[in-house]
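Q: I'm writing up a methods section and want to include an example of the input and output format. Could you take the sequence below and give the corresponding predicted structure tokens, formatted cleanly so I can copy it straight into the document?
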Amino acid sequence: MSTTRRRRPALILLVCLGAAGCLALAWWQWTRYESTSGSFQNLGYALQWPMFAGFCFYAYYKFVRYEEAPPVKPNRGELTEIPAGLLPERPKPALPDDDPTLAEYNAYLAELARSKQTENDRTIP
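A: Here is the clean output for your methods example:
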């Protein structure tokens, strides 16, 4: 017997608790909708929470099905890569322009880095 089958009662209890919690939240949202300060947002949540409760049971159902018969793995001979040309090409890096302002700024940054380095060299004993 697999360990999952031995834990099945605990999983069923967890699913039931999760669904009961969702239904309790639906009831709470419904009472909020019926109150004087309620809005249509509360009504939407009141209708949404039962779907979450149903999803708890659906997820458990799928879990049990996958446990009994796991999904078929793809064959190794099949193509698993994205075909070339399907996605747009990555942009190429921009080539450095002969911009005098940019060259001047880069020279300024290099000078700052050199002066900072020599300043740090002088302060270290």
